[in-house]
Amino acid sequence: MDVVYVLKRSDRNEELRFSLRSLANLPHDKVWAAGYRPRWANLDEIPVRQRLNKFENSAANLRAACHDPRVSDDFAYFNDDFFVLQPLEQLPVLHRGTVRDFVAEHVRHYGRPGAYLKGLQATAELLATQVRIRDPLCFEGHVPLIVNKALMRRALDLGADLPVLHYRTLYGNLARLAGEKIGDWKIRDSHSVPEPSWLFTSTVDTVFASGAVGTWLRARFPDPSPYERT
Q1: Using CB atoms within 10 A of its CB, is residue 94 exposed (0-12), middle (13-18) or buried (19+)?
Q2: How many Å apart are CA 173 and CA 124, to the nearest integer?
Q3: Which of 24, 57, 168, 179 is the most buried (most CB within 10 A)?
Q4: DSSP secondary-structure letter at 129?
Q5: What is the reported pTM?
Q6: Residue 165 pLDDT
C-alpha cells in the first residue's frame, strides 16, 4: 500500500522530515507528495497548483492523488505532521466519537464554533440529508487513514459545494468505518509529549519547532530516512 502526503507549497518542513522517518514503523510501498514536493524530499510527486485557501488546496491535492493511476487503489493518507510512534503491521481505524459529541466538546473548551467546526457540522448535515446517516462518526483524529481512491472521489464529489469540507469524516461514514474511539492525540502546548499508549501523534508548527514534543520526536527518530536527499 502506498502512502500519500497532502502537502502545501513549502521547502521548510521539518515536521515532514520526521514524519517520513517515522514511516519505518509502518510497512508501505511508494510514498507520494500530492500538491508540492519539497526540494530536499526524495518522494514521488503529484504536482498540483496551490492557489486556493488551505481547505480547498488540501481537497484538490487529495483529489489529484485519487485520480492518479500510479497510486495504489488503497493508500494511507498522511498530513506532514502525523508521526507513527509504534511498530504496526497495518493502520487501525480510529475515530473521535460522534460529530455531535466532538463539536460539543470543542465548544465547551474553545467557545463559539469557527470555520473548522462549522464545516464539520455542514459535513454531518450532508451525511444526514444525502446518505441518511443521522449521527455520523467524526474521523478528524489527526491520525493516518486508509483511503480507497474510488470511494474518496465519491466523497469529494458529494461535498464539492461545501466551503470547508471535512472529507475524512465524509469518507469514513460513506465507507461505514467503525474502529476504535480515541482522545485527542494532537499536541498543541509547549510542555506535553505523547503518552506511552499512543500509536500516533500530531503537532502544530510552533510546538514542533520549540516545544517539548519537537525535542522528543527528534530524539525518537534521529536517523535519516530514504526519503531525504543528501
Answers
A1: buried
A2: 10
A3: 168
A4: I
A5: 0.95
A6: 93
